[in-house]
Amino acid sequence: MLVDAAAPTGRDDGNLVIENMLLAAADLGLGGCYIYRAKEEFESPEGKEILKKAGIEGDYVGVGHVILGFPDMTPKAAPRKENYIYRL
User: Fold this and answer.
1) CA distance 1 to 66
2) Contacts from 77-86 at CB under 8 Å and sequence distance 24+?
3) Cβ(43)–Cβ(62) below 8 Å
4) How far apart are CA 42 and CA 50, in angstroms?
5) Which of 4, 63, 75, 77 is placed for a possible disulfide with 14 were both Cys, Cβ 3.0 to 4.6 Å?
6) Cβ pair 7, 58 in contact under 8 A
7) 17 to each of 7, 53, 58, 83, how far by Cα in Å?
8) What is the Cα Rg of the chain in Å?
9) Up-side HSE of residue 3: CA atoms within 13 Å toward CB?
10) What pLDDT, on the 0 to 100 scale, is given for residue 41?
11) What integer pLDDT is reported at residue 83 of this predicted model?
C-alpha cells in the first residue's frame, strides 16, 4: 500500500485501511498477515523500479503489504479474563 507523502496522517490512515482489509479477509474465512516493510522496499532502487514499471508516479510512501491465503487451522481465541474491564 502506498500513501501520499504530503498527507500528514497518510501512514496512520494506510495502517487503518490494512487493518480493515485483514478484518474483511478473516470474515471471508481467509488468513492474512501484515508485512511492515513497504516503506523501506519502495525507497530502495529496486522498489523505485517496481513503481516505475507499474506506472506509479508521484511522491508516495510505502505503508505495508497484506498477504492472504487459506489457513490450515482454525484460530482459537484466548479465554476472557475475569474482572478485566474497569469502569472509572
Assistant:
1) 8
2) none
3) yes
4) 8
5) 63
6) no
7) 15, 25, 20, 32
8) 17
9) 19
10) 93
11) 80
Q: Whole-model pTM above 0.85? A: no
Write out the DSSP string of 22-87: HHHHHHTT-EEEEE--HHHHHHSHHHHHHHHHTT--SSEEE--EEEEE--SS---PPPPPTT----
Which residue type occupies 67?
I
DSSP 8-state assignment for residue 7: -
Q: Which is nearest to 71 in space by CA: 20, 38, 28?
A: 28
Sequence spans of domains, the chain: 2-69
CA angle 23, 74, 30 (to 5 degrees): 35
pLDDT in tens, the chain (88 residues): 889 989 999 999 999 999 999 999 999 999 999 998 899 999 999 999 999 999 999 999 999 999 999 988 877 888 888 888 777 8
